[in-house]
Amino acid sequence: MAKGLAYGLLAAGALALAACGPIPVDQAEAQCRDMLRPVSGEAKIGVNQDRAVYDIDMKLQVSTMMGGDPSNAYNRCVYNKSGQFPTRPYYSR
Question: Residue 42 in contact with residue 55, Cβ under 8 Å?
Answer without folding.
Answer: yes
